Each structure stands twice: as C-alpha cells, then as structure tokens.
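Dear colleague,

Thank you for sharing your sequence with our group. We've completed the structure prediction you requested, and as agreed, I am returning the results in plain text so they can be pasted directly into your records. Please verify that the sequence below matches your submission; if there's any discrepancy, let me know and we will rerun it promptly.
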Amino acid sequence: MAIPNNLDALLAEHPYLRDCAGQLVVIKYGGNAMVSEELKEAVLQDIVLLKALGLKPVLSHGGGPGINAMLKKLDIPVQFINGLRYTSDETIDVVEAVLIGQVNTELVSLLQKFGGRAVGLSGVSGNMYHCHQRSEELGLVGDIDYVDTSAIHAILEAGFIPVIAPLGTDSRGLVFNINGDTAAGKLASALGADKLLLLTDIEGLCNSVEKHDVISYLNVEDVPRLKECGTISGGMIPKVDCCVTAIEEGVGSVHIIDGRKPHSILEAFGEEDFGTTIGTARESVGIKE
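Please find the predicted structure tokens below.
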C-alpha cells in the first residue's frame, strides 16, 4: 500500500512512526469527534498512513450522535444511566441500522477513498463479541464474555483494515448494544494490542472541563478517588474503566486523546504525553486536589 501523497509532509513531521512498524493499534472513534467531516477525513487519512507504514490499525467505532438523531426523528426516548444508553427493543433496531448501515459503511468507504483497503464488521460477525445482558435496568446492553479474534486476524493477514461496530450476541441469538469504549478495550486486550487510542471530543481527562486542565498521566490507582470526587463521571466512567481493564489485561499503552485535533493519532505515538495517558509506570501528573 502506497502512502497517500498528501500525507508525505506529515510523515516528515512525525519520523518516530517509522519505528512503529508491526505494532497493532486499536483506535476507538466515536461521539462528537465524528461530527466534523473535515476532522473525520483527517482521522481516516492518519489510519491509512499507519497501515502504509507497516502498523496494524484496527478501527472500533461508535455512533452516538447519529443514533440520537435517528431516535429523535422516530420519537423514541433517549435515556442514559451512568453513561450507558438504555436500549429497548425499539432502540436496538435503530442502533443496528445506524452503526452498521450508516456509520460502518461510511468509514469503510472513506478509508478506501484515501487509499486504504477496509472490511466492515460488527461484533455479531463470527460471534466476535459473545455477550450476556448487563442488567434489566439497561435493557439490551451487553457485557462481553469473550472476544473471538479469528476473523480480525484473517482480515489483518490479508492486508485489510478491520472496521468494527460495537454490537454483540449471546447463545440465543439476541443482539446487544455494547458501549463503544468497553468494546474497544476488550478488543484491544483480546488482540494483545500494543496501543489503545480512545478519540473523544475533549482534550483528555480534565480536572475541570470548563478550565481544560488535562490530567496528562493517570495512574490506575488514582481512578477510584477521582470517581468518588466526581472528576470521572458520566460518559467518562466507562471510558476510563475500559482503559484500566485494558492495562490490567496486558495492552501496552492506553491514551484518551482529542479526536477534534487534526492528526491527534500521530501525536499519540510521540514520546511526550498527549491527551491523557493511563498506566502504572509512574505517579499521576496533573491531578488537582
């Protein structure tokens, strides 16, 4: 695969990427970071560049804004409980239609527009995400029991970029909605990924979103007290939880980065902290008491 001409200059600015060949990186892309067409194209061009440089990118996506828009159009209530979408029988039909029929297809198409070769899947494909229902309170929301990575490895071996929607199934054939961050974390763990990148619509985990004061390095031991004081709340809870689980299950490094910033994916491969890096190697940096 040739590097697209318009990305040659970016490669010159990020020479460290040449040393990352062979690394498997799971990129979770979703939320409001997907709204801007210009930024969406920049993200997907970066993924094509990573592939061209010999890395193995796996794109795990969400699609919350599109789901919300469709639910509103159909006059179906939108409800979140502790950052997770309540998913009724009506809602799961919309989730499937938007994630597979719209978002997944569009991302595959754009990756190919920029010179990549991509294959779209959902976690139902090949029983990739085998689930059980998390709780009656959340409806058809699934927790992943195990990940069957055989289809993904086959796609990577064939030279394609896997693009995966966060849906799963159980032994009865029921389809479940899975939180996009949770799915990406479990996927990274199962693949033994070198890196997990969560693209979001803020600079990283902040002490105060209004002040934009990012916690540049978060040691997992500080997560419980940040939840207790409310620094980690709402939709950031499943995001941070998936990062902690990924670290505990052997993923090399985990980063929450700003998907609105052009070429943020490339920055995450540099030596300096970018966004919020989560791990166990050192003490937290940037927490305000």
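Summary note from our side: The domain at 24-279 is CATH 3.40.1160.10 (Carbamate kinase).

Kind regards,
the structure core
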